[in-house]
Amino acid sequence: MSEKKRMINGQIYRANDSELRADMKHARVLTRLFNQTTEEQQDYRRELTKSLFAKSGSDLYIEPPFRTDYGCQTRIGEHVYMNYDCIIIDVAPVTIGNHVFFGPRVGLYTAGHPTTAQERRDDLEYGKPITIGDDVWIGGNTVVNPGMTIGNNVVIGSGSVVTKDIPDNVIAVGNPCRVLRPIDEAEEAYWAQQKASYFEALANE
């Protein structure tokens, strides 16, 4: 079995394999080209992200600079926004849902390394997938560790380190990241009223 297949299957593998190095070089070429684009080159940016990711939905917007290892292991849904300096280490599959916002310097890290020194010297590593649901907002400088799942309708506070799965419909924050409170009907009613007030003010201008 090739090292690439071992990586894709979630098994331990050697990252210094020639096939994997070629795939990583391809991703780095595309990200370098993407990071050199200007705001006037939105169509070209879309072409690059379509070539980079396994799937990228409509209205994907990434603020350069952006970094990823492979891209081909990442699937991104509809209406996703990533702010500056986001990083996706996708040695295992990364799945991002619809209507997801990333603050600056969000890192999704699927890669893991042995806890013993000799095995690290032997260039062995492994990956565990990351899954992010729909309608998720992840605050700046958040790290999502290997194997984590973040549910639907979730807010992750800035500076969090996600080391356990996060359920649906909650606000979670901290290092390690813990559920702070649910997003309940009262919270939804408050923000619906804020939105109504905004549109009322616009209508009266």
UniProtKB/TrEMBL annotation:
Which InterPro entries does the record associate with it? Hexapep (IPR001451), LacA-like (IPR039369), Mac_dom (IPR024688), Trimer_LpxA-like_sf (IPR011004)
Please report the stretch or stretches of sequence annotated as the Maltose/galactoside acetyltransferase domain.
4-58
Q: Note whether Acyltransferase occurs among the keywords.
A: yes
Sorted alphabetically, which Pfam families does this protein's record hold?
Answer: Hexapep, Mac
Keyword set for this entry? Acyltransferase, Repeat, Transferase
Spell out the SMART domains in the cross-references: Mac
Does the keyword field hold Transferase?
A: yes
Q: Which Gene3D superfamilies does the UniProt entry name for this protein?
A: Hexapeptide repeat proteins
Q: What is its EC number?
A: 2.3.1.-
UniProt lists the family membership as follows: Belongs to the transferase hexapeptide repeat family.
What protein does this entry describe? Acetyltransferase
Q: To which species is this protein native?
A: Latilactobacillus curvatus (Lactobacillus curvatus)
